[in-house]
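One-letter codes give the sequence; backbone shape is given numerically. An example follows:

. . .
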Amino acid sequence: MKIIKTILFLSLILFVTSCNDDDDKLTNGNITLNFTHNWDGQSISSSEFNTTNLTNANGEIISISKLRHLISNINLVKSNGDITSLSDYVLIDVTNNVTSIEIKDVPLDTYSNMIFTFGFNEEDNIDGEYLDLNSTSWNWPLMLGGGYHFMQFEGKYGATGIENPFAYHMGTARVDIGVFEQNFFEVTLDGFSLTDNTKIEIKMNIAEWFKNPFTWDLKVLNSNLMPNYDAQKMMNQNGKSVFSLGEIIQ
């Protein structure tokens, strides 16, 4: 009888220990998305704005004074197709050093892809809908389709002393008076495994906006680009190669 009681007692200890181990395993955690920016590998932050000279694919010397862009519908996708939504949208403002977002209560798992939208899709790009964006000069003119900017990228080009301004602003494409075309695109990045407090780097190569597949000529396309349908569609195509997955810190 004593032997049976001992066995039962040990079995109870093992059961309780096993339950505690399961409880200790985190199923959800916090992650951080860090958006970094570079020019063909050269790190770019607000400290380089207005001072660092860069050369684009067309051979033009430029400097950057402003860079803001909007990312929406950030999702993680598992191999079986299950989707975890991380964020509705985030305005990345390099000018003011707002380049990271912390997301809480994310299922800790292995994901095959990260997918997000550059700008807003047609369903979400509702004029005046987002109070925080309304207060940051982010609206896109109604006469050009309304909604919001996808990117504001500004600076100067030309040799020192004879620089000219450029304003590379992207949003809805105006086809004709009262006729508009959506201009967002989706980005798909490689997958990764998540543990609590994982930090994920998402890299933008700014130089790609000027070279792939269209070589950008700032002497021709420098300002008044918002109502320029062809310029907007070129931006859309060039933007599809600017993002890549960077360092994953567990």
